[in-house]
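Wed. Picked up where I left off yesterday with Membrane-associated protein. The coffee machine is broken again, so keeping this brief.
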Amino acid sequence: MKESNTNEKIQNFFGKLGKLSKATWAIIAVVVVVIIGFFVYSGNRKSEVLTDKDVKVKFDGYNGEGRATCNEEVIQLKILKILAQKVGLDKDTEDLMLKSFDNHGLDFNRISLDSSKIEKLKKIEDLIDDVHIDFDKRINLKNGEKIHLKITVNNGKDNPIKPESKTYTVKGLENIKQESTSSVLSSVKVSFAGFNGIGRVIIKSDKIKDGTFKVKNNGKLSNGDTVKIKAPDELFNKQGVHYTGDKYVKATVDGLQDLSKIKNIDAIKKFSDDVIKNSYKSDGYEITFINLYAFAGDSNDSDSSSSSDSAVKSDVTINDDSASKVSGKRMSVIGLYQIVDKDLDNSDPFLRKVTINNLKDEDNVANISSISADDDTSVVNASNTLSIEQHDLMAKGIKLK
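Structure written out below (C-alpha coordinates, as returned):
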Protein backbone atom coordinates (compact mmCIF):
# COMPACT_ATOMS: atom_id res chain seq x y z
CA MET A 1 0.00 0.00 0.00
CA LYS A 2 2.86 2.43 0.94
CA GLU A 3 4.73 1.57 -2.22
CA SER A 4 1.64 2.34 -4.28
CA ASN A 5 1.28 5.76 -2.62
CA THR A 6 4.95 6.60 -3.27
CA ASN A 7 4.69 5.72 -6.93
CA GLU A 8 1.53 7.77 -7.15
CA LYS A 9 3.33 10.84 -5.67
CA ILE A 10 6.20 10.48 -8.11
CA GLN A 11 3.78 10.26 -11.04
CA ASN A 12 1.92 13.31 -9.81
CA PHE A 13 5.26 15.30 -9.45
CA PHE A 14 6.40 14.55 -12.99
CA GLY A 15 2.88 15.17 -14.18
CA LYS A 16 3.00 18.65 -12.74
CA LEU A 17 6.47 19.20 -14.28
CA GLY A 18 5.04 18.29 -17.63
CA LYS A 19 2.43 21.01 -17.25
CA LEU A 20 5.04 23.76 -16.59
CA SER A 21 5.28 26.45 -19.24
CA LYS A 22 8.40 27.12 -21.31
CA ALA A 23 8.89 30.42 -19.48
CA THR A 24 8.95 28.63 -16.14
CA TRP A 25 11.49 26.17 -17.46
CA ALA A 26 13.65 29.06 -18.68
CA ILE A 27 13.59 30.66 -15.25
CA ILE A 28 14.59 27.37 -13.65
CA ALA A 29 17.49 27.01 -16.09
CA VAL A 30 18.73 30.52 -15.31
CA VAL A 31 18.57 29.84 -11.57
CA VAL A 32 20.55 26.61 -11.98
CA VAL A 33 23.19 28.36 -14.09
CA VAL A 34 23.51 31.17 -11.53
CA ILE A 35 23.91 28.69 -8.68
CA ILE A 36 26.57 26.71 -10.54
CA GLY A 37 28.32 29.94 -11.58
CA PHE A 38 28.34 31.15 -8.00
CA PHE A 39 30.07 28.02 -6.76
CA VAL A 40 32.57 28.13 -9.65
CA TYR A 41 33.29 31.81 -8.95
CA SER A 42 33.64 31.19 -5.22
CA GLY A 43 36.13 28.42 -5.85
CA ASN A 44 38.30 30.59 -8.16
CA ARG A 45 37.80 34.02 -6.61
CA LYS A 46 41.03 35.98 -6.11
CA SER A 47 41.63 37.73 -2.80
CA GLU A 48 42.90 41.30 -2.59
CA VAL A 49 45.55 42.06 0.01
CA LEU A 50 46.60 45.69 -0.40
CA THR A 51 43.10 46.94 0.43
CA ASP A 52 43.59 45.72 3.98
CA LYS A 53 43.69 48.67 6.42
CA ASP A 54 46.69 47.15 8.19
CA VAL A 55 48.94 47.64 5.16
CA LYS A 56 51.19 50.62 5.94
CA VAL A 57 53.70 52.44 3.72
CA LYS A 58 56.38 54.68 5.24
CA PHE A 59 58.73 57.24 3.71
CA ASP A 60 61.98 58.31 5.34
CA GLY A 61 65.19 60.08 4.41
CA TYR A 62 65.73 63.26 2.45
CA ASN A 63 63.99 64.83 -0.51
CA GLY A 64 65.55 63.31 -3.62
CA GLU A 65 67.18 60.56 -1.56
CA GLY A 66 64.08 59.14 0.13
CA ARG A 67 63.29 55.50 0.73
CA ALA A 68 59.96 53.65 0.84
CA THR A 69 59.22 50.72 3.13
CA CYS A 70 56.10 48.78 3.99
CA ASN A 71 55.13 46.39 6.77
CA GLU A 72 55.81 43.42 4.53
CA GLU A 73 55.47 40.87 7.31
CA VAL A 74 51.87 41.93 7.93
CA ILE A 75 51.14 41.51 4.22
CA GLN A 76 52.77 38.09 4.18
CA LEU A 77 50.71 36.96 7.18
CA LYS A 78 47.56 38.06 5.38
CA ILE A 79 48.62 36.07 2.32
CA LEU A 80 49.39 32.99 4.43
CA LYS A 81 45.90 33.07 5.97
CA ILE A 82 44.32 33.20 2.50
CA LEU A 83 46.49 30.32 1.28
CA ALA A 84 45.68 28.26 4.38
CA GLN A 85 41.97 28.63 3.56
CA LYS A 86 42.65 27.74 -0.06
CA VAL A 87 44.28 24.38 0.76
CA GLY A 88 41.83 23.58 3.57
CA LEU A 89 44.28 23.80 6.45
CA ASP A 90 42.66 23.34 9.88
CA LYS A 91 42.71 26.22 12.37
CA ASP A 92 45.19 24.66 14.82
CA THR A 93 47.75 23.94 12.10
CA GLU A 94 47.22 27.40 10.64
CA ASP A 95 47.93 28.99 14.02
CA LEU A 96 51.05 26.86 14.37
CA MET A 97 52.23 27.92 10.91
CA LEU A 98 51.65 31.63 11.61
CA LYS A 99 53.44 31.40 14.97
CA SER A 100 56.43 29.73 13.30
CA PHE A 101 56.46 32.48 10.66
CA ASP A 102 56.54 35.19 13.35
CA ASN A 103 59.58 33.62 15.01
CA HIS A 104 61.63 32.28 12.12
CA GLY A 105 60.08 33.30 8.82
CA LEU A 106 58.49 30.70 6.58
CA ASP A 107 60.33 27.53 7.59
CA PHE A 108 58.07 24.49 7.62
CA ASN A 109 60.91 22.24 8.75
CA ARG A 110 60.37 23.62 12.24
CA ILE A 111 56.79 22.29 12.35
CA SER A 112 56.24 18.65 13.35
CA LEU A 113 53.03 17.35 11.70
CA ASP A 114 51.55 14.27 10.09
CA SER A 115 52.07 13.67 6.39
CA SER A 116 48.67 14.93 5.21
CA LYS A 117 49.13 18.30 6.86
CA ILE A 118 52.73 18.55 5.64
CA GLU A 119 51.45 18.12 2.08
CA LYS A 120 49.13 21.08 2.57
CA LEU A 121 51.95 23.15 4.00
CA LYS A 122 54.12 22.31 1.00
CA LYS A 123 51.29 23.44 -1.24
CA ILE A 124 51.18 26.74 0.65
CA GLU A 125 54.94 27.06 0.26
CA ASP A 126 54.67 26.56 -3.51
CA LEU A 127 51.87 29.11 -3.75
CA ILE A 128 53.61 31.80 -1.68
CA ASP A 129 56.83 31.39 -3.67
CA ASP A 130 54.87 32.67 -6.66
CA VAL A 131 53.78 35.83 -4.83
CA HIS A 132 56.08 38.86 -4.86
CA ILE A 133 55.68 42.14 -2.97
CA ASP A 134 57.67 45.19 -4.05
CA PHE A 135 57.60 48.85 -5.01
CA ASP A 136 58.11 49.91 -8.60
CA LYS A 137 60.55 52.46 -7.12
CA ARG A 138 61.92 52.17 -3.61
CA ILE A 139 64.88 54.58 -3.33
CA ASN A 140 65.95 58.08 -4.44
CA LEU A 141 62.44 59.37 -3.87
CA LYS A 142 61.28 63.00 -3.70
CA ASN A 143 58.21 64.61 -2.20
CA GLY A 144 55.15 64.59 -4.48
CA GLU A 145 56.38 61.63 -6.52
CA LYS A 146 53.90 58.80 -7.05
CA ILE A 147 55.04 55.23 -6.57
CA HIS A 148 53.24 51.90 -6.61
CA LEU A 149 53.27 49.02 -4.18
CA LYS A 150 52.67 45.93 -6.27
CA ILE A 151 51.75 42.31 -5.72
CA THR A 152 52.64 40.13 -8.67
CA VAL A 153 51.78 36.45 -8.97
CA ASN A 154 53.56 33.91 -11.18
CA ASN A 155 51.51 30.93 -12.38
CA GLY A 156 48.46 32.71 -10.98
CA LYS A 157 45.81 30.33 -12.33
CA ASP A 158 45.64 28.25 -9.14
CA ASN A 159 46.80 30.98 -6.78
CA PRO A 160 44.04 32.72 -4.79
CA ILE A 161 46.08 35.93 -4.42
CA LYS A 162 45.02 38.68 -6.79
CA PRO A 163 47.75 40.66 -8.59
CA GLU A 164 47.24 44.30 -7.67
CA SER A 165 48.86 47.70 -7.42
CA LYS A 166 48.26 50.57 -5.04
CA THR A 167 49.46 54.14 -5.61
CA TYR A 168 51.12 56.20 -2.90
CA THR A 169 52.31 59.80 -2.95
CA VAL A 170 55.72 60.40 -1.40
CA LYS A 171 55.62 62.92 1.43
CA GLY A 172 57.32 63.94 4.65
CA LEU A 173 60.92 63.76 3.37
CA GLU A 174 63.35 66.28 4.86
CA ASN A 175 65.00 68.86 2.62
CA ILE A 176 68.66 68.32 1.72
CA LYS A 177 71.08 70.85 3.18
CA GLN A 178 73.57 72.70 0.99
CA GLU A 179 77.12 72.92 2.32
CA SER A 180 80.45 73.98 0.88
CA THR A 181 83.23 71.41 0.57
CA SER A 182 85.38 73.89 2.47
CA SER A 183 83.42 73.02 5.61
CA VAL A 184 85.13 69.63 5.42
CA LEU A 185 88.50 70.54 3.93
CA SER A 186 89.25 73.67 5.96
CA SER A 187 90.79 71.51 8.70
CA VAL A 188 93.37 69.96 6.33
CA LYS A 189 96.92 71.12 7.00
CA VAL A 190 99.53 70.48 4.29
CA SER A 191 103.29 70.25 4.70
CA PHE A 192 106.10 68.73 2.66
CA ALA A 193 108.85 66.24 3.43
CA GLY A 194 111.96 65.07 1.64
CA PHE A 195 114.21 67.05 -0.65
CA ASN A 196 113.80 69.35 -3.61
CA GLY A 197 112.87 67.24 -6.63
CA ILE A 198 111.88 64.21 -4.53
CA GLY A 199 109.48 65.82 -2.10
CA ARG A 200 106.28 64.34 -0.73
CA VAL A 201 103.08 65.62 0.83
CA ILE A 202 102.14 65.21 4.50
CA ILE A 203 98.47 65.81 5.39
CA LYS A 204 97.13 66.39 8.89
CA SER A 205 93.65 67.11 10.23
CA ASP A 206 92.13 67.20 13.69
CA LYS A 207 88.62 66.62 12.26
CA ILE A 208 89.19 64.10 9.45
CA LYS A 209 90.37 60.93 11.16
CA ASP A 210 91.15 58.77 8.13
CA GLY A 211 91.03 58.74 4.36
CA THR A 212 93.31 58.40 1.35
CA PHE A 213 93.98 61.54 -0.69
CA LYS A 214 95.43 61.63 -4.21
CA VAL A 215 98.44 63.78 -5.15
CA LYS A 216 99.84 63.73 -8.67
CA ASN A 217 103.65 63.30 -8.83
CA ASN A 218 103.87 62.84 -5.08
CA GLY A 219 107.45 61.77 -4.36
CA LYS A 220 108.86 63.90 -7.20
CA LEU A 221 107.83 67.34 -5.95
CA SER A 222 110.03 70.42 -6.18
CA ASN A 223 109.86 73.78 -4.45
CA GLY A 224 107.47 76.08 -6.28
CA ASP A 225 105.28 73.26 -7.64
CA THR A 226 101.54 73.75 -7.26
CA VAL A 227 99.78 70.57 -6.17
CA LYS A 228 96.13 69.62 -5.99
CA ILE A 229 95.46 67.25 -3.11
CA LYS A 230 92.25 65.46 -4.09
CA ALA A 231 90.03 64.38 -1.21
CA PRO A 232 88.31 60.95 -1.19
CA ASP A 233 84.66 61.00 -2.30
CA GLU A 234 83.50 59.33 0.91
CA LEU A 235 84.21 62.55 2.81
CA PHE A 236 81.25 64.09 0.99
CA ASN A 237 78.76 61.23 1.35
CA LYS A 238 77.00 62.60 4.41
CA GLN A 239 73.32 61.73 4.24
CA GLY A 240 71.04 64.71 3.78
CA VAL A 241 73.84 67.04 2.65
CA HIS A 242 74.73 68.16 -0.87
CA TYR A 243 78.26 69.53 -1.09
CA THR A 244 79.27 72.22 -3.58
CA GLY A 245 82.75 73.41 -4.48
CA ASP A 246 86.16 71.91 -5.16
CA LYS A 247 86.94 68.54 -3.63
CA TYR A 248 90.64 69.21 -3.36
CA VAL A 249 93.14 71.30 -1.41
CA LYS A 250 95.59 73.41 -3.37
CA ALA A 251 99.09 74.10 -2.04
CA THR A 252 102.47 75.37 -3.20
CA VAL A 253 105.50 73.20 -2.43
CA ASP A 254 108.11 74.87 -0.27
CA GLY A 255 110.70 74.19 2.41
CA LEU A 256 112.40 71.25 0.64
CA GLN A 257 116.17 71.11 1.09
CA ASP A 258 118.17 71.15 -2.13
CA LEU A 259 120.50 68.13 -2.23
CA SER A 260 122.46 69.62 -5.09
CA LYS A 261 123.74 72.19 -2.62
CA ILE A 262 125.39 69.63 -0.36
CA LYS A 263 128.96 70.83 0.06
CA ASN A 264 130.70 67.49 0.65
CA ILE A 265 129.48 65.45 -2.32
CA ASP A 266 133.08 64.55 -3.16
CA ALA A 267 133.54 63.15 0.36
CA ILE A 268 130.44 60.99 -0.07
CA LYS A 269 131.76 59.72 -3.41
CA LYS A 270 135.15 58.91 -1.88
CA PHE A 271 133.45 56.98 0.93
CA SER A 272 131.43 55.01 -1.65
CA ASP A 273 134.57 54.38 -3.73
CA ASP A 274 136.36 52.99 -0.67
CA VAL A 275 133.45 50.61 0.03
CA ILE A 276 133.43 49.16 -3.50
CA LYS A 277 137.23 48.89 -3.58
CA ASN A 278 137.19 47.06 -0.28
CA SER A 279 134.77 44.54 -1.84
CA TYR A 280 137.11 44.01 -4.83
CA LYS A 281 140.59 44.25 -3.30
CA SER A 282 142.35 42.28 -6.00
CA ASP A 283 144.21 44.20 -8.69
CA GLY A 284 142.47 41.93 -11.16
CA TYR A 285 139.37 44.13 -11.17
CA GLU A 286 138.91 47.35 -13.04
CA ILE A 287 136.38 49.56 -11.20
CA THR A 288 134.74 52.50 -12.93
CA PHE A 289 132.53 55.02 -11.14
CA ILE A 290 129.31 55.80 -13.05
CA ASN A 291 126.97 57.97 -10.97
CA LEU A 292 126.00 58.96 -7.44
CA TYR A 293 122.30 59.30 -6.49
CA ALA A 294 120.58 60.62 -3.36
CA PHE A 295 117.21 59.56 -1.94
CA ALA A 296 114.92 60.77 0.80
CA GLY A 297 115.02 58.49 3.84
CA ASP A 298 116.89 55.22 4.29
CA SER A 299 116.71 52.40 1.77
CA ASN A 300 115.50 50.25 4.70
CA ASP A 301 112.44 52.46 5.26
CA SER A 302 109.20 51.03 3.89
CA ASP A 303 108.30 54.52 2.64
CA SER A 304 111.70 55.33 1.20
CA SER A 305 111.87 56.17 -2.48
CA SER A 306 115.03 54.12 -2.95
CA SER A 307 113.40 50.95 -1.61
CA SER A 308 110.19 51.10 -3.65
CA ASP A 309 109.39 50.17 -7.20
CA SER A 310 108.49 53.76 -7.93
CA ALA A 311 109.20 57.06 -6.23
CA VAL A 312 105.84 58.44 -7.35
CA LYS A 313 103.05 57.31 -5.01
CA SER A 314 99.83 59.23 -5.55
CA ASP A 315 98.07 57.85 -2.46
CA VAL A 316 98.56 59.88 0.70
CA THR A 317 96.89 58.74 3.93
CA ILE A 318 95.81 61.57 6.18
CA ASN A 319 97.43 61.68 9.64
CA ASP A 320 99.99 59.09 8.52
CA ASP A 321 103.34 59.74 10.23
CA SER A 322 105.42 57.44 8.03
CA ALA A 323 106.21 60.18 5.51
CA SER A 324 107.50 62.39 8.31
CA LYS A 325 110.47 60.04 8.68
CA VAL A 326 112.13 61.86 5.80
CA SER A 327 111.25 65.31 7.11
CA GLY A 328 114.25 65.21 9.46
CA LYS A 329 116.57 65.55 6.45
CA ARG A 330 117.42 61.85 6.54
CA MET A 331 118.78 60.50 3.29
CA SER A 332 120.53 57.60 1.62
CA VAL A 333 122.99 57.52 -1.27
CA ILE A 334 123.60 54.91 -3.95
CA GLY A 335 126.84 54.78 -5.92
CA LEU A 336 126.67 52.94 -9.27
CA TYR A 337 129.83 51.20 -10.53
CA GLN A 338 130.90 49.15 -13.53
CA ILE A 339 133.40 46.35 -12.87
CA VAL A 340 135.47 44.26 -15.26
CA ASP A 341 137.37 41.10 -14.28
CA LYS A 342 140.69 41.61 -16.08
CA ASP A 343 141.83 38.05 -15.38
CA LEU A 344 139.14 36.69 -17.69
CA ASP A 345 139.49 37.02 -21.43
CA ASN A 346 136.60 38.84 -23.12
CA SER A 347 134.95 39.35 -19.74
CA ASP A 348 131.69 41.32 -19.88
CA PRO A 349 131.45 44.24 -17.45
CA PHE A 350 128.97 43.95 -14.62
CA LEU A 351 127.28 46.52 -12.38
CA ARG A 352 127.35 46.93 -8.60
CA LYS A 353 125.48 49.35 -6.34
CA VAL A 354 126.85 50.71 -3.07
CA THR A 355 124.11 51.92 -0.70
CA ILE A 356 124.96 54.27 2.18
CA ASN A 357 122.26 54.64 4.87
CA ASN A 358 121.76 56.81 7.97
CA LEU A 359 122.93 59.98 6.31
CA LYS A 360 121.63 63.37 7.43
CA ASP A 361 121.78 66.73 5.75
CA GLU A 362 123.03 69.16 8.38
CA ASP A 363 123.21 72.69 6.97
CA ASN A 364 124.05 71.41 3.49
CA VAL A 365 126.70 69.03 4.81
CA ALA A 366 126.10 65.26 4.91
CA ASN A 367 127.34 63.55 8.09
CA ILE A 368 129.50 61.12 6.12
CA SER A 369 132.17 61.11 8.83
CA SER A 370 129.67 59.51 11.24
CA ILE A 371 128.86 56.60 8.90
CA SER A 372 130.19 53.08 9.50
CA ALA A 373 131.23 51.16 6.42
CA ASP A 374 130.40 47.91 8.22
CA ASP A 375 127.00 48.87 9.69
CA ASP A 376 125.58 51.48 7.32
CA THR A 377 126.50 50.25 3.84
CA SER A 378 125.74 47.38 1.49
CA VAL A 379 126.96 46.24 -1.93
CA VAL A 380 124.51 44.48 -4.25
CA ASN A 381 124.31 43.35 -7.85
CA ALA A 382 122.53 45.56 -10.36
CA SER A 383 120.29 43.22 -12.31
CA ASN A 384 119.47 45.55 -15.22
CA THR A 385 121.50 47.07 -18.00
CA LEU A 386 123.34 50.31 -17.33
CA SER A 387 120.79 52.51 -19.10
CA ILE A 388 117.86 50.92 -17.25
CA GLU A 389 119.61 51.21 -13.88
CA GLN A 390 120.37 54.86 -14.53
CA HIS A 391 116.79 55.51 -15.57
CA ASP A 392 115.33 53.78 -12.51
CA LEU A 393 117.67 55.46 -10.04
CA MET A 394 117.00 58.86 -11.56
CA ALA A 395 113.23 58.23 -11.42
CA LYS A 396 113.48 57.51 -7.69
CA GLY A 397 116.08 60.02 -6.61
CA ILE A 398 118.40 62.86 -7.60
CA LYS A 399 121.74 62.53 -9.34
CA LEU A 400 124.47 64.14 -7.25
CA LYS A 401 127.39 63.29 -9.50
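Quick read: The two ends are 143 Å apart (CA to CA).
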